[in-house]
Amino acid sequence: MFKKILIANRGEIACRVIKTAQKMGIQTVAIYSDADAQALHVQMADEAVHIGPPPANESYIVIDKVMQAIRQTGAEAVHPGYGFLSENPKFAEALEAEGVAFIGPPKGAIESMGDKITSKKIAQEAEVSTVPGYMGLIEDAEEAVKISSDIGYPVMIKASAGGGGKGMRIAWNDDEAREGFQSSKNEAANSFGDDRIFIEKFVTQPRHIEIQVLADQHGNCIYLGERECSIQRRNQKVVEEAPSPFLDEATRKAMGEQSCALAKAVGYASAGTVEFIVDGEKNFYFLEMNTRLQVEHPVTELITGVDLVEQMIRVAAGEKLSLSQDDVTLTGWAIENRLYAEDPYRNFLPSIGRLTRYRPPQEVGAGPMQVNGTWHGDAPTGETAVRNDTGVYEGGEISMYYDPMIAKLCTWGPDRAQAIEAMRVALDSFEVEGIGHNLPFVAAVMDHDIFIKGDMTTAFIEEQYPEGFEGVTLGEDTLRRVAASCAAMHRVAEIRRTRVSGRMDNHERRVGSDWVVSLQGEQFEVSISADRDGASVVFADGQSLRVTSDWTPGDQLAELVVDGSPLILKVGKVSGGFRIRTRGADLKVHVRSPRQAELAALMPEKLPPDTSKMLLCPMPGLIVTVNVSEGDEVQEGQALCTVEAMKMENILRAEKRGVVSKLNAGPGDSLAVDDVIMEFE
Q1: Phi, psi (rounded to 5 degrees) for 125
Q2: Are 410 and 441 spatial neighbours (Cβ–Cβ below 8 Å)?
Q3: Torsion angle defined by CA atoms of residues 87, 89, 92 and 98, in that order, rounded to the nearest 10 degrees
Q4: Fewer Cβ neighbours under 10 Å: the N or C end of the chain?
Q5: Which of 224, 242, 228, 254 lies closest to 328 in space, CA to CA?
Q6: Is residue 467 a contact partner of residue 482, using CB atoms and an 8 Å limit?
Q7: Mind listing the pLDDT tens digit for each residue in 91-101?
Q8: 21: left (phi > 0), else alpha (psi -120 to 50), else beta?
Q9: What is the pTM of this model?
Q10: Torsions phi, psi of 60, nearest 5?
Q11: Which residues are CB-contacts of 422 (< 8 A; sequence separation ≥ 6)?
Q12: Which residues are catalytic?
């Protein structure tokens, strides 16, 4: 077995690999750029080597710099994680020439399956059903338009060397094909150093289901069930689960056996993933093979008890698989939510900055995959597990240079319903401040009827949130539970204020029992009676809710029990009440005396400033192109400019017809959120 391995990656996946290496008694080497000098993976590793400036194309994907770090530290093997150099055959070749083991598949398998054009041709030759498309290389935008038209819209424009949603566009007409081709080409060149593009038919109403395979160097290959990855945004997975609520055993077996046959056809050895599009009739079509560890691998580990990173290391060391297909059992259900530094209230645009507060829920290894370890045997009945794979810490900074993922929150339960409920509680308990993030959105997904039924497709987000995410409107029952809790917390805070020292003589502050709670556009008149164990909150219509909690003023997380059921609230202070976040809702809650409520109703509403005649920068980013000039008349939907942030190009379009009166920024300018790019008459 290896004594020292280098992790050619950063962030949460580097931390994930280090954990397993430590468990196996293997020393680890981290590499880092200037932006990652204080990163968590650097702190966790036994050694760390600086490899260059922040941009990945000057550090993490420069093969010579990584090879130099290997020589400097004497690492015997390299784990590439995902992204960066993980599917680069030149890197595998360089390692082979140096006599260093690559913890991944052979170079030939990477070349044939890592390239999406070649992999589709091989799949077709192996009589694997594939999606119709054009497998050849495409020279320019006009050729892309012709090919797209021949295939029939809609089409998917994809980077051949792509992954993680980079270099992908859906085009519904000639203009979008022309535009999407150029943007995909640019993103592919910047992210992967390979700008080759191919086009395929976009199958509407599909499910995205993938099979995890594991193969060794001795001809053995097994599959570890499937993962449902249909909830995606901009082709980037957001929620994953295992198993899929859609597949039956016969379809699972057919997909698994086909995946193994494909892996064996290219001499695959390591962990890999075969991705499929599955239609409503359970017909499945080969999409691509990822010759690396997937972001969503934890859900497979949670239902199988197999540590995939450990297996990759053992395979790279020449060991045979210790498992046969008959040994693989799927136990319980696992769900993963990806926590991204993206603001859901701004159409999920990237958000960067410092994590002023980062408190994930406590990890509990009651399920099949223990924290930092492997489970074998029966899972504890009725218990759930919480796992959080992360690469950040409180006080750390989210950089503009890399992928915006902060963490992967996973839960396991004996069945799907319990896994979902465990995830709801975990999301409500997850505290993140300082940046925009998608916690409210994934919390909303966990409560959505379509997700609960397991009836989602890859169009779920597009169809259910066509105008973007605007927060959650709580139902009446939940709203009353929150109102009762806030009334009880306000009473506690008021009692605290009566005990402040230094009060004026003959001035005593009394805490009343009658209050008016205002939230989500509604008002509830309540009366509170309290005792040592809690408070009873009685509403005007006679409903009474019993609230118990050990919350004290200043606590930012309140764990309450309301009428026997748990309720977790993230609590902030606003004048006359609280900012409350729970189950995807973000509420301003005011708790006032009846007289204060009467006076508050007379106050005029403060309106936001009018920015309807301005184009504001929706995220911190770099202006790549400006498509209009001062004096130009623009039409609704017309492209105005392109902003690049976190390796993604974002085209900003006109919301309505108008005339450009002033340009405040140009190509190459770096802008902050809400900086004015241009103004209109």
Answers
A1: -65, -30
A2: no
A3: -150
A4: C
A5: 224
A6: no
A7: 999 999 999 99
A8: alpha
A9: 0.83
A10: -65, -25
A11: 384, 385, 386, 411, 412, 413
A12: 288
